[in-house]
Design goal:
Layout (H helix, E strand, L loop, with lengths): L10 H16 L5 H12 L4 H8 L21 E5 L2 E4 L4 E2 L2 E7 L2 E5 L4 E2 L3 E9 L2 E5 L5 E7 L1 E3 L14 E9 L2 E5 L6
Parallel strand pairs: 1-4, 2-5, 3-6, 4-7, 5-8, 7-11, 8-12, 9-11, 10-12
Helix pairs in contact: 1-2, 1-3
């Protein structure tokens, strides 16, 4: 190992690696387990060599920004009536988002998404429904409401002051709203 590889990694270098991992996950290059393992390792990497080992098999070029859609605003609402809502992959998530599920299920996977604000607020309402919200490691989660539980958290127990925040306001009647940084066991 040469001398530059032993230089300690900076927060900015960790963020660059984490972004590459998120893009690769959103493109389907990494599965859930591989993404989770690599992301946690990137957030706790000590040296540049540690980071390089996590992204060595991914394309060097990251795609440009997501293409603008008509109206250029990301979707702000997901609803399901006796059905399911599923949002995953590479997409833009607005500052405020509402998910309403009536007698169905919801799956909001933010791990490959671009959060458009430093604080993203998700209002979730589930009537006789379960709504799962997956956040990437390294995101601060704040949750409140009725029937909301969270298992999301930083594995190392520390987040940078500039870490993005996902605030979940939820209400579940005869159901649940689960916020986690890992997919539920199947």
């Amino acid at each position: 190992m040469n001398e530059p590889d032993l230089i300690r990694a900076s927060d900015q270098e960790r963020d660059v690696a984490a972004t590459r991992l998120q893009v690769a996950f959103g493109e389907g290059r990494l599965d859930d387990t591989e993404f989770d393992n690599r992301m946690r390792a990137a957030l706790t990497a000590q040296t540049r060599a540690d980071l390089a080992g996590l992204v060595h098999d991914l394309p060097a070029e990251t795609p440009g920004p997501l293409p603008a859609t008509t109206g250029s605003q990301p979707g702000r609402l997901a609803m399901a009536y006796k059905n399911s809502v599923r949002r995953a992959g590479r997409r833009r998530v607005p500052e405020r988002y509402l998910a309403v599920v009536y007698k169905g299920s919801g799956w909001l996977d933010l791990r490959g998404a671009e959060l458009t604000s430093a604080v993203t607020t998700i209002r979730a309402v589930g009537y006789k429904s379960r709504i799962d919200i997956l956040v990437p490691p390294g995101v601060r989660v704040e949750a409140d409401g009725l029937g909301v539980s969270t298992e999301a958290g930083d594995a190392a127990g520390t987040l940078s002051a500039s870490a993005p925040v996902v605030h979940v306001h939820g209400y579940a009647y005869k159901g649940s709203i689960e916020v986690s940084s890992r997919p539920p066991e199947r």
